[in-house]
Structure formats: C-alpha cells, structure tokens
From TrEMBL:
<dbReference type="GO" id="GO:0005525">
    <property type="term" value="F:GTP binding"/>
</dbReference>
<dbReference type="Pfam" id="PF00009">
    <property type="entry name" value="GTP_EFTU"/>
</dbReference>
<keyword id="KW-0547">Nucleotide-binding</keyword>
<comment type="similarity">
    <text>Belongs to the TRAFAC class translation factor GTPase superfamily. Classic translation factor GTPase family. IF-2 subfamily.</text>
</comment>
<keyword id="KW-0648">Protein biosynthesis</keyword>
<protein>
    <submittedName>
        <fullName>Translation initiation factor 2</fullName>
    </submittedName>
</protein>
<dbReference type="InterPro" id="IPR005225">
    <property type="entry name" value="Small_GTP-bd"/>
</dbReference>
<dbReference type="GO" id="GO:0003924">
    <property type="term" value="F:GTPase activity"/>
</dbReference>
<dbReference type="InterPro" id="IPR015760">
    <property type="entry name" value="TIF_IF2"/>
</dbReference>
<dbReference type="InterPro" id="IPR027417">
    <property type="entry name" value="P-loop_NTPase"/>
</dbReference>
<dbReference type="GO" id="GO:0003743">
    <property type="term" value="F:translation initiation factor activity"/>
</dbReference>
<dbReference type="GO" id="GO:0005737">
    <property type="term" value="C:cytoplasm"/>
</dbReference>
<feature type="domain" description="Tr-type G">
    <location>
        <begin position="1"/>
        <end position="151"/>
    </location>
</feature>
<keyword id="KW-0342">GTP-binding</keyword>
<keyword id="KW-0396">Initiation factor</keyword>
<dbReference type="InterPro" id="IPR000795">
    <property type="entry name" value="T_Tr_GTP-bd_dom"/>
</dbReference>
Length: 155
C-alpha cells in the first residue's frame, strides 16, 4: 500500500526491523501500519505488536500457504482478542491457490466470512496493486465496526 520494497533493503531479503508508517488512502482515510518481520526469530516482537494493534492484517502468500509464523500471528491475535483481516498476497503468481489458503486458515480455526465467520479475506497482489482498494475497504469497515473512525457530526 505504501509502494516500497522494505525487504529488498534488508539482509537476506527479509524484513528484520519493526516499522511504523502511515498510508494516505485513495478514499482520503489514513491507516497506520506496524510492519513486523515474519521470520521465526522475531516472535517476541510480533507478540508485542499484537498487543498494541487495533486490527491485525494477516498477510499470507497465495503460493506458499500458511506458515508457522502465520499460525503464530493468529495465536497472538486470539490471545489479545484483536480482530483479523486476511490479505492473501501474490494471487498473480503461477501456482497461487487462494482457495487452498482459505481452507488452511479455516482448518486452523480462523472464522472466515466465506464460511460464516467474521474474518474478512481479500485477495491482493502487492506487486501490481490488484485488490489493494478492497483491502482498504475491508480495513476501514473493520475500523468502523470497532468504532475507531470518528463520525462526522451532522449540522
């Protein structure tokens, strides 16, 4: 959403630092993100981030499926009672299987909207920008449901 390649600047091509950034969205809204590394060595950092986050955006690669860090992030969100919005990324890659990811997430106990739950799932491509508008909508809807967005007063 912020059109950068954070991992490209990191050793080994993986994110190794906690990042915080504000993205001005096309709708005019601003969303603040805490970006935590996915590598297993950073589990404590992710646990702390979940504790101070309003909404967890769980990003899962459509070609890889859920990984141990995905399960860990789901556990942190559950422990802190933090709502989750799932972004299935890399849907444009060969071998991408978003439906398999949905099945995996559901089988691990994440109550997806597709299956009657309350967790929104959005298919995206961070590379091409496909679906990012729908991710914005999902995050803003979740924020509104949580009463995180100030309501405009009618005069």
């Amino acid at each position: 959403m912020r059109k950068t390649t954070v991992a490209a600047k990191e050793s080994g091509g993986i994110t190794q630092h906690l990042g915080a950034f504000v993205v001005s969205m096309p709708s005019g809204a601003s969303i603040t993100f805490l970006d935590t590394p996915g590598h297993a060595a950073f589990t404590a950092m992710r646990a702390c981030s979940a504790a101070v986050t309003d909404i967890v955006t769980l990003v899962v690669a459509a070609d890889d499926g859920i990984m141990p860090q995905t399960l860990e992030a789901m556990s942190h969100a559950k422990e802190t009672n933090t709502p989750v919005v799932v972004a299935i990324n890399e849907c444009d890659k060969p071998g991408a299987d978003p439906e398999r990811v949905r099945i995996q997430l559901g089988s691990e106990g994440l109550p997806l909207e597709d299956l009657g739950g309350d967790v929104q799932v959005v298919e995206i491509s961070a590379l091409t920008g496909t679906g990012l508008d729908k991710l914005e909508e999902a995050l803003l809807l979740q924020a509104e449901l949580m009463d995180l967005i100030p309501h405009k007063r009618m005069l």
